Amino acid sequence: MEDALVLARTSSSVTVIHRRDSFRASKVLADRVLSHPKISVVWNSVVEEFVGSAEQLTHVVVKNSADGSSSNIPCVAGFVAIGHIPNTDFVGQLVGRDSQGYITLAEPHSTKTSVPGLFACGDAADKVYRQAITSAGSGAMAALDAERWISEHKSK
Question: Which of 15, 17, 54, 119 is the most exposed place for a label (fewest CB within 10 A)?
Answer without folding.
Answer: 54
